[in-house]
Each structure stands twice: as structure tokens, then as C-alpha cells.
């Protein structure tokens, strides 16, 4: 079946050469155009396809739904210190009250008291808790994070990312997304 395909529709799941997604959160996806380009540049192997196809006057092909890189991309050993990664480490919850609304981040030891902007001193916090704590030390504010802030590994972030599946998961992706998780007895 040949159809008109919008640029946002029918993305391809991108796996590293070891058949694991390049990223779980956000899930490593390419537009169908990028996936087809990678096929023609011989950079990927197609593992699964959609029923839909694209055509030109001289060629047609089914759209890839899962592709695997031919060359292994070495994942970063140390995740970047970003707002998003702090939220992901803390599972998108305020470390003081558990809310997932209006998140920002808080310096456990305030900067005005010598606290630094590091993995070990920053936690996700909702705006009301952040305002309530202000520039006070945890003991002064009687506010302690539910978990001690720590420098996560890439694996920590991948594991947390699996807790937040995307809104859309195509059935052809399922065999490739969670095969490396521990099975329950």
C-alpha cells in the first residue's frame, strides 16, 4: 500500500550495533526520511518494516520501523549534568514532596552557603518546595531530600527512562526495547 506520509509519522526505532536502543529516554527514533537515507548510505540494517511504503517513479520500498546501526556507537560513560538528566535521575518527582508538577531544581546546600551546582548537591524540586526552602540549609528549613543526590551512571538513567515509556510504541519495536532487562521468575 502506497500512502502519503507526513514527516512526523512512522518513525524508525534506532538500535546500536549491539541491538540495544541508543537511548531509552528519550527513545532513539529517526524520521522515516532519515531512516531511508541511512539505508541508502549503507549505515543501517533494516530489522522490521511498516506496511506503508514510499515510492518514486523508479523505486519503491516499505518504510523501516526498526533499524540497527552497522557500526557500534560507544555510549558516553558519564551522563551530562543537565536539568533533564537531574529530573530523570530523580524520576521527575520533587525530592521534598513527591509532586511531579512545576519542576525546577534545588541546591540542597544553597549556593549562598557555598553549595555547588553538581550532581551531589542538586535535586529536582517543585516550585512551591523550592520557594519554601529558599536559601536555607536542609536542617533550618526542616526539608530533606527523599534520596541523597548522587552522580548517576548511564545505566541508572536508562533504567529510570524505562519507567516513562513514550506515548507511542509500535508493536514491531517491542522485541527490541526491553530484551536486556532482568526477567521476573
TrEMBL record:
Domain HNH nuclease positions: 81-131
PANTHER family: OS07G0170200 PROTEIN, SLL1193 PROTEIN
Organism: Xaviernesmea oryzae
InterPro entries for the chain: HNH_5, HNH_nuc, NA-targeting_endonuclease
Protein's recorded name: MFS transporter
CDD domains: HNHc
Amino acid at each position: 500500500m502506497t500512502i502519503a506520509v507526513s514527516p512526523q509519522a512512522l518513525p524508525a526505532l534506532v538500535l546500536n550495533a549491539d541491538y540495544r536502543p541508543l537511548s531509552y529516554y528519550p527513545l532513539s527514533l529517526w524520521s522515516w526520511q532519515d531512516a531511508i537515507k541511512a539505508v541508502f548510505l549503507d549505515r543501517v540494517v533494516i530489522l522490521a518494516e511498516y506496511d506503508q511504503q514510499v515510492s518514486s517513479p523508479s523505486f519503491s520500498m516499505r518504510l523501516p520501523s526498526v533499524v540497527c546501526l552497522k557500526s557500534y556507537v560507544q555510549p558516553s560513560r558519564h551522563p551530562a549534568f543537565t536539568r533533564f538528566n537531574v529530573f530523570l535521575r530523580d524520576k521527575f518527582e520533587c525530592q521534598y514532596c513527591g509532586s511531579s508538577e512545576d519542576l525546577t531544581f534545588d541546591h540542597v546546600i544553597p549556593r549562598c552557603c557555598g553549595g555547588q551546582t553538581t550532581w551531589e548537591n542538586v535535586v529536582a524540586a517543585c516550585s512551591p518546595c523550592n520557594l519554601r526552602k529558599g536559601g536555607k540549609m536542609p536542617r533550618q528549613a526542616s526539608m530533606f531530600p527523599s534520596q541523597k543526590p548522587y552522580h548517576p551512571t548511564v545505566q541508572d538513567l536508562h533504567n529510570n527512562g524505562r519507567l516513562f515509556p513514550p506515548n507511542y510504541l509500535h508493536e514491531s519495536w517491542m522485541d527490541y526495547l526491553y530484551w536486556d532487562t532482568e526477567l521476573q521468575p
